[in-house]
């Protein structure tokens, strides 16, 4: 139970990180607005520190946009691992926080200088914080530090000015900051709940309820992802198998024992494959294994032999030693030429051909 909760939490986290890379347009608009503001204000003040902070902010936002564009493909990939997601989040956070700090310091300096650009900078700070709430709001640890870095120097500078209008400006910024943080917390909680429900229901829809193996839908999605979307290379092998002697187990020991046997078979099959391959239960005692990225068609035989040996080992169910066997039909094709339906049909035909040969051999020996 704990492992499932941890796995679900990791999947939710990955979904939240993906949200950071969805839209780069607000950042591009902010970059243009901030660059124009820097040009206008530096032209007015002719101050070197103002220019330095402005250039630092422009560079930071440029890096932020480049990072988002370059890493978006990795972030949106369906197989994004939580460890890589944490790395992507950090690479996203550093330039965003750098820009937020440069923006806040630049804005605060403009306010202290009593520049005509003060209203413009307050507008940019509020707009930036609103953009963070919208674009990074599902990850408060990313959004809130940026909001603080942009807002606090601006508010502090307004309070230092000490006139009534500036104090009101500083107080308004802090009030917006507090309200925004509260809104982020609520939105984050709601998003986590919604994503958890969606992932849970989606996972259930793609799992065989008895064995917890992938079902036909998940098999199709995984095949398309590995072969079609990722333009897989090498050889793809489809192994179609069923269990010999399964019906007598049901008849002799009952359906509960039969269900237990299927669950134990599923575990052995899962242990026999590589992490990049997939095993699915199609129904009854029929299973399919798909291997990706094989060097040559003959490599598929290694798995077939391993599965046959694994299933041939006795199963102990309620003190009874039960022996069954399996027959496997295999079809292979180059990844760029493979179609799941064709391979499934060819593997099914190969299975029945193997059964006929075995039946003929047994008849000949008799």
Describe the fold and architecture:
The structure is a single chain. The chain has 366 residues and is an alpha+beta fold. The chain folds into two domains: 2-205; 216-365, 2-Layer Sandwich (Alpha-Beta Plaits). The protein has helices spanning 2-20, 25-45, 48-76, 82-112, 118-135, 140-161, 164-205, 216-229, 246-253, 255-272, 299-312, 340-365; strands at residues 235-244, 278-283, 286-294, 315-317, 320-322, 325-334. It has a four-stranded antiparallel beta sheet with strand order 2-3-1-6, sandwiched between helices. Strands 4-5 form a two-stranded antiparallel sheet. The longest helix has 42 residues, at 164-205. The two termini are 52 Å apart. The model has no long low-confidence stretch (mean pLDDT 86).
Q: How would the blueprint of this fold be written?
A:
Layout: H1 2-20, H2 25-45, H3 48-76, H4 82-112, H5 118-135, H6 140-161, H7 164-205, H8 216-229, E1 235-244, H9 246-253, H10 255-272, E2 278-283, E3 286-294, H11 299-312, E4 315-317, E5 320-322, E6 325-334, H12 340-365
Antiparallel strand pairs: 1-3, 1-6, 2-3, 4-5
Helix pairs in contact: 1-3, 1-4, 1-7, 2-3, 2-5, 3-4, 4-5, 4-6, 5-6, 5-7, 6-7, 9-10, 10-11
């Amino acid at each position: 139970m704990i492992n499932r909760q941890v796995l679900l939490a990791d999947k939710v986290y990955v979904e939240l990180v993906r949200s950071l890379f969805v839209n780069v347009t607000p950042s591009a608009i902010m970059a243009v607005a901030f660059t124009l503001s820097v040009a206008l204000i530096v032209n007015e003040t002719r101050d070197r520190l103002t220019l330095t902070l402005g250039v630092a902010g422009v560079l930071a936002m440029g890096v932020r946009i480049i990072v988002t564009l370059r890493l978006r493909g990795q972030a949106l990939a369906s197989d994004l691992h939580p460890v890589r997601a944490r790395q992507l989040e950090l690479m996203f956070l550093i330039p965003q926080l750098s820009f937020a700090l440069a923006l806040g310091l630049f804005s605060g300096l403009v306010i202290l200088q009593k520049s005509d650009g003060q209203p413009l900078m307050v507008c940019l700070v509020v707009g930036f914080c609103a953009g963070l709430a919208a674009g990074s709001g599902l990850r408060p640890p990313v959004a809130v530090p940026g909001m603080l870095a942009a807002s606090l120097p601006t508010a502090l500078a307004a309070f230092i000015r000490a006139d009534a209008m500036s104090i009101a400006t500083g107080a308004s910024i802090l009030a917006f900051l507090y309200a925004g943080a509260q809104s982020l917390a609520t939105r984050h909680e709601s998003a986590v709940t919604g994503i958890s429900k969606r992932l849970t229901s989606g996972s259930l829809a793609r799992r065989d309820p008895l064995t917890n193996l992938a079902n036909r839908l998940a098999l199709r999605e995984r095949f398309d992802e590995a072969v079609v979307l990722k333009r897989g290379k090498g050889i793809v092998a489809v192994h179609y198998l069923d269990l010999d002697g399964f019906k007598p187990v049901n008849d002799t020991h009952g359906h509960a024992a039969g269900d237990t046997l299927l669950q134990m078979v599923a575990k052995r099959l899962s242990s026999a494959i590589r992490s990049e391959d997939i095993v699915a239960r199609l129904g009854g005692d029929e299973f399919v294994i798909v291997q990706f990225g094989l060097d040559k068609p003959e490599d598929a035989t290694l798995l077939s032999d391993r599965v046959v040996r694994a299933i041939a080992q006795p199963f102990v169910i309620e003190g009874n030693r039960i022996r069954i066997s399996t027959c496997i039909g295999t079809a292979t094709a180059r990844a760029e030429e493979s179609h799941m339906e064709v391979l499934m049909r060819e593997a099914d035909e190969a299975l029945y051909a193997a059964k006929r040969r075995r039946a003929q051999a047994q008849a000949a020996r008799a």
